[in-house]
Amino acid sequence: MKETKGIWKIIGASSLGTLIEWYDFYLFGSLATVLASQFFPKTNPTAALLSTLATFAAGFIVLPFGALVFGRLGDLIGRKYTFLLTLILMGGSTFAIGLVPNYDTIGFAAPIIVLLLRLVQGLALGGEYGGAATYVAEHAPIHRRGYFTSWIQTTATLGLFVSLGVILITRHALDPDLTKSIAKFNDYGWRIPFIASIALVVISIYIRLKMKESPLFEKLKTAGTTSVNPLKESFGHKINLKMVLLALFGATMGQGVVWYTGQFYAQSFIENVCKVDFDQSRTILIWAILAATPFFVVFGSLSDRIGRKWIMLAGMLLAIISYRYLFNELLVLSDVGNKMELVYLKQIKKTHTPIAHTTDTLRTVTNKHFFDDGAMVVETIKDTAFSTVGKTTLKPDIKTYKILDTAAYWKMVFFVFIMILYVTMVYGPIAAFLVELFPTRIRYTSMSLPYHIGNGVFGGLTPFIATLLTTIYTSDKLVGLLYPIIIATVSLVIGALYIKNKIDPQID
Amino acid sequence: MNQLKRLAGIIWIVLGPLAIYYLVKTAAGEISKKPIIDTWVQWGVFVVVSIPIAIGMVIFGYYAWKGEYDHIEEELEELKH
């Protein structure tokens, strides 16, 4: 009991800050479409290029770079001040994004400022995780390291949960009429989630300021044995480099793709391939996250008893063998082909909007199909109705979305829950695993880089490569899963062959 | 087991350049399909980031092939003390 005295305060303070950082980072990704219309108009090629840079550079280059910059700092000056700094940078840049005037108001300055702020966000997140995980692990009692660090592991998923929730609530709360509320959200309401985060950031900074330095780092500092050059020691010394490479290829690489497939690709698949409605596709994820999150702690705790290795590898194996089945079930559940349409309820609405300086009109036809189990399909066709007889639009713009019936909705929640359960298996014990792999003097640097390459690069590539594969091999809607399956298989084999299942009792 | 670890090392050595070959091939195909600066930036970032990772994979494979991961527990102890 004495051993764990004060640990909850440490976990609470570390987790709150890390959760806020994930929330801030996800906001930008979740609101990418709205932000693009505000700051990166597609009609302007330079602004569109800045948008591409914001997406790719922040995820793939800046995250690992942040891991190196702040990891080094954390091993040189200490964990406490480093992850305090990352929180200030993240909070400040998120708040600032909410205040930046849009492209119509200040022109090119707008996308440039937003791009820079997004890069600062990526840099800060790259430095945050390693610090928080190291800090908690260095306070945790020896035989419960997996359990206590798993609380930090819940923050990434909960950050996504909070960001989705705040976006949905704000989107619905700006006007009693939903259509007007969404229009207001797209106009100015999107700023609210960014600006509101500052309150939590300030509280978290206050709490972190009151925290003490990690006892293990303090011990090194007192003895004068902290690292002089953590980067050189981490990656220049063969013994440590071997561990960094093993951590990356045998654990974080596979963990990253399982994480991104379960939490991001699944949602994108439900929305874009299954064509499920915006709100439903997000609430499905919200319920699944809520049900699965406690399992981070369950598997973290279990790893203290049976070791970290086989829990992580079992998560990868289950994902590899069941992904195609699970995603196919999502497709089947959203298919209305076998359902009975209530034809007498079908609604057709046509509107014509005049097109300026011509006699043509923009024709919008909305067809609503209702089914016996409560499902609904809405199809919107937009084309130009030409005044010249015989002239027709070559390719009308057709958009379809489905509202699932209650049974299909909850079945989808269940299947996504299973995928997030795999995430909890691979991700729950990984902080303890990484912490035990490296010595205190270079731990922050050494564990941050493989973590962010595994998650930021291998995981972050999942939606892009999966989408790319579906555009090349159009006959198979599940072909995108090849990428996470191959990467997870390689990682599983490497992990099974080279990683030891031993729990290291001493990390100092 | 150690023999298997060493043999598998050869696979990891090959995997690095193979991944880069396919990545560059795909990047070239995608860029030629849509030769705008956005596509260049996107695939440029992928290739630039992937090269050091592929080199890392080759180094990992080389160490595995040379038996450097045969006594990992002892090495971990050595690393920490």
Description:
The complex is a heterodimer of chains A (about 500) and B (about 80). With about 500 residues, chain A is of the alpha+beta class. Chain A is about 70% helix and about 5% strand. Chain A folds into 2 domains: about 5-335 and about 405-500, Up-down Bundle (Growth Hormone, Chain: A); about 345-405. Chain A is built from 20 helices and 4 strands. A 4-stranded antiparallel sheet of chain A has the order 1-2-3-4, with no helix packed on it. In chain A, helix 4 (about 80-100) packs antiparallel against helix 9, helix 11 (about 230-235) packs across helix 12 and helix 12 (about 240-275) crosses helix 13 (about 280-290). The longest helix of chain A has about 35 residues, at about 240-275. The two termini of chain A are about 20 Å apart. The model of chain A has no long low-confidence stretch (mean pLDDT about 90). In chain B, helix 1 (about 1-35) runs antiparallel to helix 2 (about 35-65). The mean pLDDT of chain B is about 90. The interface of A and B includes residues 45, 249, 493, 504 and 506 of A.
CATH architecture of the largest domain in chain A: Up-down Bundle
Proportion in helices of chain B: over 70%
Strand-pairing-aware structural class of chain B = mainly alpha
Helix and strand composition category of chain A: alpha+beta
User: Number of domains in the coordinates of chain A?
Assistant: 2
Task: Indicate the low-confidence ranges of chain A by residue numbers.
Answer: none
Oligomer: heterodimer
Radius of gyration of chain B: 18 Å
Largest interface chains and counts: A-B, 37 and 34 residues
Let me know the average pLDDT of chain A: 89
Biggest β-sheet of chain B, characterized? none
Strands ordered across the widest β-sheet of chain A: 1-2-3-4
Radius of gyration of chain A: 24 Å
Number of helices of chain A: 20
Q: Estimate the strand proportion of chain A.
A: 5-15%
Number of E-state strands of chain A? 4
Shape of chain A: globular
DSSP summary, beta strand count of chain B: 0
